Amino acid sequence: MSKNQLAKNIVHYRKKRGLSQEKVAEYIGVSRQAVTKWENDISRPSADNLIRLSHLFEVNIDVLLNDKDQEESSIQTEIVMGKMSWFFIGISVLCILIYVIKSVQSNIFDIGILIVMFILCVPIQLFLHIYFSNAINSDSFIGIAGFNDKMEYNIREVKKLLVQIDLHIEIMSTVYIFLLCVINCMNGQMKWLNGFLIVIYLLNFVITVEIINYRMIDKIYREDNDKKRARRSIPIITIYILLLFIGIGMLITVFEIKGIENNTITAIELAGLFILGTIIATIGFFFENSQIKKWNPEDKNYRLNKVSIICLIICMIIYGIICFV
Hints:
There is one protein chain. By secondary structure, the chain is mainly α. The protein has 14 helices and no strands. The protein has three domains: 3-75, 434 Repressor (Amino-terminal Domain) (Orthogonal Bundle); 78-222, no CATH class; 223-325, no CATH class. The chain has helices at residues 3-16, 21-28, 32-39, 47-57, 61-65, 68-75, 84-105, 111-138, 155-183, 193-215, 217-220, 224-258, 265-294, 306-324. It starts with a helix and ends with a helix.
């Protein structure tokens, strides 16, 4: 191998991981000028620095030292999205078709149930699978919620996280679509379970994704400060999500108990209050999240943003009004 090949490989993997020369130098413990010399083939990294580079770039030392053919052979070990997700998507589509055929034959077809099943299958199952697959294949994660290109990530672990989340979504969505199919093909005897299933699905979706993210924090982030910020944001996200579900639950309960019909003035007023409460909660969430991003973890006395506290109180007052309208 020529000395020039090592220089090319350092440039290639640094850019592939989205790192600047300054970040590489900081991780290795050398000056930026040293990294520049390595990449310009003026000098070579020491054996210890080669080991650190291999850890940083998540490749074997042999890959850094070898030519393109050997590099391509290593790509086979890269994290890729499995085909199992397509199996579950296929089952979901089959369940939807069975529901349509059976419900039409039995004259119990409900367009609302079909829309719910379609949303679970296409925008959630299919779209997210394609979106995550493209992110993994292209090493581009900018569009992923929570991803910050200013932070240093362990890209391999980020890919593992997306694979885990994708498979969980596929299995969970298929199970709920199957249950909706079965329940709504039983001549309406158990249709009261539809709302319950949808709420449980949403809770399961959000909570499980949060748990998976929390467990992967130490592996995903390279910097300790970024790990601490990520942990700090988990309770805030959880509270925000709980607020949304509390609002939805209260709204559904009030509609059912008071027998409020859709498209009435009262229904519109309640929906408007719920939307207003959600908007205020969202404003508080963004204020708090913005403060967390700027927070210096070395300052252990973290204080909640006053605006977010006020928004939380207002949101709960509005939800209380919904109960007494």
